[in-house]
Amino acid sequence: xxxxxxxxxxxxxxxxxxxxxxxxxxxxxxxxxxxxxxxxxxxxxxxxxxxxxxxxxxxxxxxxxxxxxxxxxxxxxxxxxxxxxxxxxxxxxxxxxxxxxxxxxxxxxxxxxxxxxxxxxxxxxxxxxxxxxxxxxxxxxxxxxxxxxxxxxxxxxxxxxxxxxxxxxxxxxxxxxxxxxxxxxxxxxxxxxxxxxxxxxxxxxxxxxxxxxxxxxxxxxxxxxxxxxxxxxxxxxxxxxxxxxxxxxxxxxxxxxxxxxxxxxxxxxxxxxxxxxxxxxxxxxxxxxxxxxxxxxxxxxxxxxxxxxxxxxxxxxxxxxxxxxxxxxxxxxxxx
Length: 336
Description:
Ribose/xylose/arabinose/galactoside ABC-type transport system protein; 2 strands; 70% helix; ABC transporter involved in vitamin B12 uptake, BtuC; cell inner membrane; ABC_transp_permease; membrane
């Protein structure tokens, strides 16, 4: 009986916590279950979740990407610079951002597998490099139509309607327009990564590398290629998040991505606790992003001070991981 209860707690404990959180906020914060609140939650979950899915791919191969927030902000600034200052069409801006994300991921991968730089140090260094690089063209200023450039000219380019559609369009749900376009993109990416990691040979090899890199290499797995590919996926997904954020804001706001790294990492790590997986997985990451979004929206609607939000996120993350790995170790311990 105790073993059965333990299995239920491991598999469904997080989902029960998520449901309990929704019930609590719906009672404590009037309007929490309203359509407007739901739209805000979904909007915030989408960008955080897309970045977190990229982190998940690096976690699968035993790595970790700390540069995702900086890549997303760089994509935001690059898309704005491309359209507002260089007056490129939307498709060029999007392609530039995707190429930038892939290049950053490739460089991260090379630093880790070829130059043997620890993943945390390599991606941390890349984070600082990008934070500085994205501010140089505009001397640390945000980018908006009509801004005065360093040479005294005025930027006359604008965000195209097609680009803004990516971040602002909402699809009809029953009667009201409640489903933001970024959520559709997030769900699409989540399904693709879930299928790739869980149901393809490449995904299984990536899990094998994360579980035992040396053993995977001995049976002929091209470990370095898969690790580089994981960081490239992370870079591209982070750039997609930055593109969607730019499309939502309609300007290159240099401070808008400050919390993306922490929220995305929290979502990816909370995913370990979903359905007792105890490993990185796309479905768990999506649920983790939803949990973070609901938690922040509920606290905001209850007028909780902004400086308490990171503390609560950290406490929930630690509790979820301790809960998962402690109970899992008990289940796999002697006598089980």
